Amino acid sequence: MGKVITVANQKGGVGKTTTSVNLAAGLAVEEKKVLLIDADPQGNATSGSGVPRIQSRKTLYNVLVLDEAVENVILPTELPLLWVLPADRNLVGAEIEIVNSENREYKLKNIINKIKNDYDYIIIDCPPSLGLLTVNALTAADSLLVPIQCEYYALEGVTELFDTLARLRRSLNPQLNIEGLLLTMYDERTNLSSAVAQDLRDFYGSQVLKTVIPRNVRLAEAPSYGKPIILYDIRSRGAESYIQLAKEILSHE
Ligand SMILES: Nc1ncnc2c1ncn2[C@@H]1O[C@H](COP(=O)(O)OP(=O)(O)O)[C@@H](O)[C@H]1O
Ligand SMILES: [Mg+2]
């Protein structure tokens, strides 16, 4: 039975997509069979993992709203053990179109249940909000991974996210675990990065993952080539850190 890890933080630009793509690729390189689900209408995880954004392609929208069979929508990637369930702008509509449907929070969970046995890991990239798509992703999840950018207001966002998590555990998903808080875009030359890291470790203790993702320009370049970092520049510090993250996540089993 595959493990579902949802990557969420309602703040934008904190490294959710970078983490989703590169953790998924890292797990695939560690010989796990992985499905990356793009649940963000921006479709950045889709394009960043090397699936071209063509017009006619079916996406998560077709599965969520039009009851398309999920197997028909999943696409292979350059990595033999990594598949993608793509997203595009249409997904904006899904949030509105499913709002009045029965079990609206469980839509994604019900879809994933049909394919959970086919993968070792299912990674879900969320949009920068706590709307219905993110709630669906959290309801479907076994665990939550929270990328946190090492900047001044980092802690505030996390508090709000943890309130949502507490509510979800009371109602939609009592089993939801925390996979970890992941420090991203860590800049060792600044005092701010290390101060934020220290604050988070003081406050959240061992929930903060040991792996820290450094600020690394290669990580920012890779998406424009449609490649995970391990295919773009395997020798970069970014690649090294995401392989280390994949290993740390594997060690949780
Ligand atoms: N560790 C990093 N080093 C350098 N740039 C990064 C790093 N992580 C993410 N970025 C860049 O920062 C921007 C925001 O990251 P992204 O993963 O898209 O965040 P989110 O999905 O949370 O909005 C992107 O342009 C991305 O390429
Ligand atoms: Mg994103």
Estimate nothing, just give the exact number of structural domains.
1
Please tally the β strands and state the result.
Answer: 8
**Number of distinct helices:** 11
Beta-strand portion reads 15-25%
| Radius of gyration, whole Å | 17 Å
Calculate the mean pLDDT score and round it. Answer: 94
Helix content: 40-55%
Structural class estimated from helices and strands = alpha/beta
Q: What small-molecule ligands were found?
A: adenosine-5'-diphosphate, magnesium ion
> Strand-and-helix sequence, N→C?
EHEHHEEHHEHEHEHEHHH
CATH architecture label name: 3-Layer(aba) Sandwich
Largest beta sheet: what is the strand line-up?
3-4-2-5-1-6-7-8
Report on the biggest sheet: 8 strands, mixed
SSE layout and pairing:
Blueprint: E1 3-7, H1 16-29, E2 34-38, H2 44-48, H3 60-66, E3 75-76, E4 82-85, H4 91-97, H5 107-113, E5 121-125, H6 132-140, E6 143-149, H7 154-170, E7 177-186, H8 191-204, E8 208-214, H9 217-221, H10 229-232, H11 237-251
Parallel strand pairs: 1-5, 1-6, 2-4, 2-5, 6-7, 7-8
Antiparallel strand pairs: 3-4
Helix pairs in contact: 1-11, 3-4, 5-6
The structure holds adenosine-5'-diphosphate (ADP) and magnesium ion.
How would you sum up this structure, described in words?
This protein starts with a strand and ends with a helix. It has eleven helices and eight strands. The chain is of the alpha/beta class. Helix 1 (16-29) packs across helix 11 and helix 3 packs parallel to helix 4. Helix content is 41%, strand content 18%. The protein has a single domain, classed as 3-Layer(aba) Sandwich (Rossmann fold). Bound molecules: adenosine-5'-diphosphate and magnesium ion. Magnesium ion (MG) is lined by residues 16-17, 40, 44. Magnesium ion (MG) binds next to helix 1.
